[in-house]
Amino acid sequence: MNKLLWNLKTRxxxxxxxxxxxxxxxxxxxxxxxxxxxQVELKGKSVLDLGVxxxxxxxxxxxxxxxxGLDFTYSMxxxxxxxxxxxxxxxxxxxxxxxxxxxxxxxxxVGLIEYIKDIIPFFExxxxxxxxxxxxxxxxxxxxxxxxxxxxxxxxIYVRTxxxxxxxxxxxxxxxxxxxxxxxQHQVLLQKSVE
Length: 195
Ligand SMILES: C[S@@+](CC[C@H](N)C(=O)[O-])C[C@H]1O[C@@H](n2cnc3c(N)ncnc32)[C@H](O)[C@@H]1O
Fold this sequence. Notes:
The termini are far apart. The chain is an alpha/beta fold. The protein has helices at 2-16, 22-37, 74-83, 120-129, 145-150, 162-171; strands at residues 46-50, 66-71, 89-91, 104-109, 130-140, 174-181, 186-192. A seven-stranded mixed β-sheet has the order 3-2-1-4-5-7-6, with helices on both faces. The chain is globular. It has a single domain (2-38, 49-192), classed as 3-Layer(aba) Sandwich (Rossmann fold). The structure holds S-adenosylmethionine.
């Protein structure tokens, strides 16, 4: 049901995000993302974008040696491939990622974890795949009016406070490098411990 709904949403996803006020909100989210991503030296690095959707994050990963997009929705991957025909894409669940242990320098997960009920398997996987010292760019949804509006789009949204997230971040030996906020989203740059 979850995947079916995403497949249905794909057609309207980009269109919806091009209308006011969503476009303005999205511009702010993207500018925050750029602020976080620009703190990481991407030259020669490998990046995995989880929940790639139609490929919004990919345009900010210039300079990386390799970029892989992962999503469990086939129609989203088709759209992403249309915009980025030379990149590899994987259709898989972000809770069971078919990528080698300690193989990635950076993972991005933008607009993803609010759709994941239990984030422990998500952290297990990202922690497994990241090299020591690797970075995770993660966004999450705060409990507010805008998040409640998103419920109208059909998917359950799992809101999290920054304190809840901080507990898990510490548990998995990540350090918070930077933190940004916009109306619908909080964005955080994490670094996995080097040991
Ligand atoms: C709101 S979109 C975000 C897309 C993109 N990251 C962006 O910033 O525009 C969420 C995406 O996550 C995908 N998704 C949701 N749960 C997932 C899961 N457990 N594993 C893989 N992809 C998932 C959906 O198919 C959808 O494409």
